[in-house]
Amino acid sequence: MKPDDEELLVQLNAELNILDAQFDDISPPSLLVMEELIAAETLRRRRKSRNELLLFLCLALIVLSIILSALGSAPVFYWVLQAVFPLAALGSLGVSRIRLRREDTEE
User: Fold this and answer.
1) Do the Cβ atoms of 41 and 49 come closer than 8 Å?
2) C-alpha to C-alpha distance for 41 and 5, rounded to whole angstroms
3) pLDDT in tens, 42-74
């Protein structure tokens, strides 16, 4: 080994010993603390999930009631909207594909 390599090896070992000394002072949490943390996290996730489900159901109910009221009060308008939105989506997709093909042929 070269002298530079030995010096580098000694320096790396010293740095690793310092790092090991810092992590030796850390003690793992007790089992009781971990169980409390897991229970609290589980409860928080359940509440969050329940709130998200409630929000989803409320919004779905609102959207469904709007659609049903539109269907009941103006069925022709409802069916026109049902036809226009998919056609607009397909039309915009077709236009974007045509533009991409034109750009590819120009290059």
Assistant:
1) no
2) 50
3) 999 999 999 999 999 999 999 999 888 877 887
Distance separating alpha carbons of residues 41 and 33, to the nearest angstrom: 12
On whether the pTM is more than 0.70, the answer is: no
1 contacts: CB under 8 Å, gap ≥ 6: 9
CB neighbours of residue 67 within 10 Å = 13
Question: In angstroms, rounded to a whole number, what is the distance separating the alpha carbons of residues 88 and 21?
Answer: 66
Model pLDDT for residues 5-28, shown as the tens digit of each residue: 888 888 999 999 888 888 777 777
User: In the chain, what are the domain boundaries?
Assistant: 13-73, 74-107
> What secondary structure does DSSP assign to 64-97, as a single string?
HHHHHHHHHH-HHHHHHHHHHHHHHHHHHHHHHH
With contact defined as beta carbons under 8 Å apart, do 9 and 17 qualify?
A: no
